[in-house]
Amino acid sequence: MKIAVAKGDGIGPEIMDAVLKIFDANQVPLEYVTVDMGKWVFDKGFSNGMTPESQHVIEDLGILFKGPMETPKGKGVKSVNVTARKTWNTYANKRVFQTLFGVDTVFSKAGIPIDITIVRENIEDTYGGIEHMLTHDVALSRRFITRPGSLQVIKYAFEMAKKKNAKRITCGHKANIMKITDGLFLECFYEVAKEYPELKADDVIVDDLCMKLVTRPDYFDVVVLTNLQGDIVSDLCAGLVGGLGFAPSANIGDHICIFEAVHGTAPDIAGKNIANPTALLLSGITMLRHLGFMRNAATIENALLYTLENGIHTGDFGDKSIKSVNTTQFAEAIISNLGKMPVHGAKPMLENMTMTPTNFKLDKNPMLVSKEMEDEQIAGVDLFIESSEQPEMIAKKCERHAGVKFKMVSISNRGTQVWPTGSVYTNLVNQYNVRFESLDGEPLNQQDVIGLYVSLSGNFKICSSELLNMWGDKKAYSLAQGQ
Ligand code: NAD
User: Fold this and answer.
1) Is the shortest distance between the CB of 264 and ligand 1 below 6 Å?
2) Is the CB of 274 within 6 Å of ligand 1?
């Protein structure tokens, strides 16, 4: 089987060489096709950090094993790591965090075992990077949470939890505050949960989740979260098991999967042959299991666990009274331990399985539509305007534009209502949201809204606008704080 390999920047080539040497020593039946991705490709003028030939190879082979890659600073370019995950719709980011004997943490010392899998949505959320300055003082980021996108990642999380015989699957969220976006994600979670009655499904607000993860990490099994919250919570979990040097990651899509370590290029130690290859090795082991090479995966993981148990360590972890080894020596120690079984957490030696290859060649983009609402009506519009005037003055100026179709119902500033009621203690910035609704409660059309827009633009710079949609009697928008 052929896979694409990108060694990456910084410590990438050192740790990738170490991992591939271990794979070769175990005669992993893989052939590696090296692809061009990373900082040096940006520097050659490829604005997305990869050459078109590399893109073709990865799309043909369907598997990318990659080292960390640097995003050039201040050149207006986007991270090649994020571009790769998004372009190829690797919608689920799976990160497994488990106690490794020989890697001391407060929990291992207290005898509290950790085995947590975080599944992070990998495409949506604020990672769309859709951001605008509305005024010179006000920046806006759009956060996309979609029903099909949420269902995709949540279904993967449940399926994976079932396969690993998990006892519990938890949704981390902030639906108490972000009722529409996180509320949608949570709704999808419980919708999918109905199909898996054998799994205990529950939810925890993300701040409470962080507190509970550091007090009782052993209470959690599989946790699924939206993109940004998942990013933060997974780094927290990396800290629980000894740091980023032990955090593997798999980016799972239906057609293309990317396996990489969570950590970056570690420029401070690059080129010194002292980096810890464990996270990349664990990512590679996850990839081997994904491809059906169960026996190779177990043999290599057992050799790694045996090596760690015996106190062999790179400089970033382990017993400081035992001299550390460099990257190459660490890999050689693992190679010499192939075939040995660790005392703690030995992996069962399953047989390799033949996997049916997926047909990677799609001829068009799949449209993800899970539910279309038929009874949608426009009930009003939010117009975001720039102004440094006080709310009463804005209300006076806006009211005369309402005409016969609209009434002005609220003005808010940074999400807090400041008109018709409000407080002088609310600090204001120079951008308001003026909410107009249908005067008589009758549905509006887009022309009505455009008419209002044109009229109001005579008085104010309109920075942005959003329709207020009703689905039956359900509001498809949030209220301002205090409205
Ligand atoms: P980093 O993860 O590279 O380094 C943070 C700290 O951890 C450093 O002190 C580093 O020495 C240490 N460290 C990381 N990996 C290690 C390892 N395997 N062994 C020993 N020590 C290790 O994070 P950063 O410094 O914020 O980022 C550096 C670059 O990496 C940036 O350009 C960033 O964009 C990129 N990055 C890439 C990825 C990726 O490719 N998926 C992920 C994160 C950051």
Assistant:
1) yes
2) no
Q: Sheet of 200-205: strands edge to edge?
A: 31-34, 2-6, 63-66, 257-261, 248-252, 92-98, 115-121, 222-225, 168-173, 200-205
Angstrom distance (rounded) from CA 244 to CA 236: 10
Q: Which residue's CA is the closest to the ligand 1 atom numbered 25?
A: 266
Size (the chain), residues: 483
Q: Give the integer Cα–Cα distance in Å for 307 and 338.
A: 10
Distance CA 301, CA 100 (A): 11
Instruction: Enter the DSSP assignment of 245.
Output: G
71 lines ligand 1 (CB under 6 A): yes
Give tens-digit pLDDT for 223-245: 999 999 999 999 999 999 988 88
Closest CA to 459 of 382, 381, 383: 383
Give the span between the Cα atoms of 182 and 186, in whole angstroms. Answer: 6
The pLDDT tens digits of the residues spanning 105-133 come to: 999 889 999 999 999 999 999 988 899 99
Q: Is there an atom of ligand 1 within 6 Å of 276 CB?
A: yes
pLDDT tens, position by position, 62-119: 999 999 999 877 667 788 888 899 889 999 999 999 999 889 899 988 999 999 999 9
CA of 344 to the centre of ligand 1 (A): 29
**Whose C-alpha lies nearest to ligand 1, atom 30?**
264
Domains of the chain: 2-336 (3.40.718.10), 376-475 (3.30.70.1570)
User: pTM value?
Assistant: 0.91
Q: What is the DSSP string of 76-144?
A: SPPPHHHHHHHHTT--EEEEEEE--TTS--HHHHTT---EEEEEEE-S-BGGG--EEESSSS-EEE--B
Rounded Cα distance between 427 and 416, Å, is 10
